Amino acid sequence: MSAPTLELSRRTLIKFGLAAGAASILGACGGTSSPTSASTVLKPKADGDITWFSFEGYVSPKVVSAFEAKYGVKVNLVYYTNTEGMVQKVAAGLDYDLITTNSAFNKNLIAEKLLRAFDPSDISNFDQIIPYFAKPPYDDGSLRYSIPYGYGPAGIAYAKDHVQVSGSWSDLWNNPAAKGKIFVLDQQDETLGMSLIRNGASCNSGDTQEVTKATDDLVALKPSLGGISSDVETLIDGGEAWMTHAWAGSVYRALERAKDPSGWDFEWPKEGLSMGCDTLSVGAHAKSPGTALLFMQFVLNPEESHKNTLYTGYSNGTKQGEAAYAEMTKNYPFLALPDSNLNTAQWREAATGKRLQLWNQQWSRFKA
Amino acid sequence: MEPVQGVMSFPTRARSEHAFWTLFLLPGLAILGLFFILPLILVGIFSFGPIDVLGRPKIGFTWENYSSVFLPQNIAPLLRTLEFTAISTVVCLLLGYPVAYLLSRYAKRTAPVILGVVVLTWLVDYLVRIYAWQTILAPAGILHGVLSWMGVGSPNVLHTNAAVIAGLVYGYLPLMILPIYASVSELEPQVIEAGKDLYGSPRVTFLRVTLPLTRAGVLGGCILVALPMLGDFATAQFLGGPSSTMIGNLINDQFTDAGAQTVGSAFTVVLILLLVITLLVVMALTRRRVGLSRAAMPVSAAASLQPIGGSE
C-alpha cells in the first residue's frame, strides 16, 4: 500500500534533484560575467569595510589595526589553505574585496576579468616597489592588477655536519649516505620545476621528453628520500631532515625556533631558481574596491611594510621590506637572495591544457 | 452496518496516517539529495568535462580525465591503499573488540564514561591529531626520547608505512568500538551461559557463540572503518614516506595542487565504483550468514556446541 506513495516521492525527489542539479550546473558553468564597474579604473578611497581572502597569519595584526584606525573601516579576514583553492573560489565569482593572489595565476585571473585594474600613478607608495617587481611579466601593462606581497624562492637547506654540497640541485641526488633524511617539497610546480631547471630546461616546460626525464630523475631520487613534504619547519625542527628542498621563509622560521640553528646552512643552487610571488589584488566582484586598493597603498608605506615583513618572515618586494628582511635574517646571511640569483630566476606559470595533463600524470608517477 | 463501516474506515485511516508519517522523511531525503546525491551527480558529470585556464570544470565530454586514471602507475597506490586499509581494519578489530566487549559486559556504570573518552578524541580536529603523532614519532620526538632513555635504541618510525598504519588505526578505532559495543550489549548473557553449560571452553564459547552473534557489529565496524580509510589522505601525507602514497593523496593532489578537479572527479568515480562493488560482494557473501545467526539465535548457538558434547 505504501509503495505507490514512496515510489511517487522517489520520482518527485529524483526530478527535483535533477532540476536542482541542472540549475546549479548551469550556474557553475555559465561563466562569470564581470560587473560593468570592473572595467573602470579604480581609485584608492575608503568606500566601506573589506573582506580579505588570504593565508592565515599572513599579515601583522598591527598593520590591520593601524589601517582600521586610520580610515575608520573594518578588515575581515577569510582564509584559504592553498593557492589552488583561492583560484577556484575567485574563479567562482565570490565577492572578496582584497585577495592574496599569486604571480603564477595572475595572467589567467586578469584574462578572465576577475581582478580590478588600477593606475599605479594613483598609488602614493607605488615607488616603494623595487625595480625587480616594478613591471613583472605576470602583470606588465600600463594599468596594473597587483602589488608584490611576499616572496622567497626555494633552495636547499642542509645540516652541515651530515651532507656534502656543491651549490647545485644535484646535491639532493649526490648524498646517498643521507638516505631517508632527504626531502623534496610536496608541490608539483616547485619540485618538477626544480628537476627541469637542474636539467637546463624551463621550469614551465610542456615538452614531453623534458618533463618525463625530469620525473625519471625524481623517481631515481626516491630511494634516498625520507619523504615528500612541504612542512619544512617540522622537518628541520623535528630532526627529520638533513637536507631538504625548502623555501627560505620557512627555513628562517624553523631556525628561529631551533635550539641550535648553527648546524644549518642554505644554498641557492647555481642552475637557477623558479620564482613565484604572492601578490595583493582587488577582486572584480569587490563590494568595497576603493578600500581594498587603499589597503594595498597602505601596506606599501615604508613603516607598515617594515612591520609586516618582520611579522610574516617574507620579503615583500618593497625597499623597506627588503631592508627589514636583511635585518631579520642577519643571523642567517645565507638566506639573503643574491641579485644574480634573483635576476636569473624563472617565473613560474600555472599549467593549463595539455601541459597540465602531462605534469599531472608525471607528478602522480613520481608520487606513486 | 457498523462492523462493515469499521472495516472500510480502517485502511483509509491507516493510509492517511502512513502518508502523514512519510512526510517526515522529506527533510532528511531533501538534505541527502541536495548535499549528497547532487554533489555525486556533479562529480560524475565533471569527470567527463574539460576545464578552463583557471581549472573551472566545464560541461563537455572527454575521456582524457579517465585516461589519467587508468595508467599502470596508479596500480601501486591502489594496491597500497587496499593493503593499508586491510591491515589497519584487522588491527582495529583486534584492538576494538576486546575494548567493546569488556566495556559492554563488565564496565557497567563506568561504560558511558569510558565510551565518552573514546569519542572525546574525535572532538579534536583530525589534522591536529595527526600533527600530534608527528611530534610523538619524530626523531627528536617523545617516542625517541623514551626509547633512548630505556636504552632500546631509536627506530626510525616517522615517514614509514608502519607510521601510516598506526595513524589510520588511531584515527578510526572509535568507529570500530562503537558498533561492536552496541552489538555485544544486545547479546543476552544467558546465551553465553548456555554455551558454558554445554561444556564449551571460554575460547570455544567465544568462537561459536559470542563472535557469531556479534557478527553484525563486527561487519558494521569493519565497513565503517574501512570506507573512510580507503579515501584517507592526511595520514599518508603527514606520517608517510616517499612510497606511502594512497589513492586519497592522488585525488587530493588533483584538487589542491594540480588544479585539475575533473581528473580528481574521475579518480573519485572510479574509487566509488570500486567501493560499491566491493561492498555489494561483501554484503552478498555475509548477509545470509548474519541473517541466519540472528534469526536462530539461542537455538543455533546451542546447536553449534553440539559437537563439544561428543554427539557428532
Structure commentary:
The complex is a heterodimer of chains A (368) and B (312). Chain A is α/β, with parallel strands linked by helices and 368 residues long. Helices cover 42% and strands 14% of the residues of chain A. Chain A has helices at 2-29, 61-71, 83-91, 103-111, 131-134, 188-198, 208-221, 232-237, 248-257, 289-300, 302-312, 319-328, 339-344, 353-367; strands at residues 50-54, 75-79, 98-102, 147-151, 154-159, 182-184, 225-228, 243-247, 264-267, 274-275, 277-282, 346-347. In chain A, helix 6 (188-198) crosses helix 7, helix 7 (208-221) packs parallel to helix 14 and helix 11 (302-312) packs parallel to helix 12. Chain B has helices at residues 2-23, 25-46, 64-69, 75-106, 111-120, 126-137, 142-150, 161-186, 189-197, 202-213, 215-231, 234-239, 247-258, 261-295, 297-304. Chain B starts with a helix and ends in an 8-residue tail after the last helix. Chain B is globular and about 70 Å long. Chain B is mainly alpha-helical.
Give a topology summary.
The complex is a heterodimer of chains A (368) and B (312).
Chain A: H1 2-29, E1 50-54, H2 61-71, E2 75-79, H3 83-91, E3 98-102, H4 103-111, H5 131-134, E4 147-151, E5 154-159, E6 182-184, H6 188-198, H7 208-221, E7 225-228, H8 232-237, E8 243-247, H9 248-257, E9 264-267, E10 274-275, E11 277-282, H10 289-300, H11 302-312, H12 319-328, H13 339-344, E12 346-347, H14 353-367
Parallel strand pairs in A: 1-2, 1-3, 6-7, 6-8, 10-12
Antiparallel strand pairs in A: 3-11, 4-11, 5-8, 5-9
Chain B: H1 2-23, H2 25-46, H3 64-69, H4 75-106, H5 111-120, H6 126-137, H7 142-150, H8 161-186, H9 189-197, H10 202-213, H11 215-231, H12 234-239, H13 247-258, H14 261-295, H15 297-304
Helix pairs in contact in B: 4-8, 4-11, 8-11, 9-10, 10-15, 11-14, 13-14
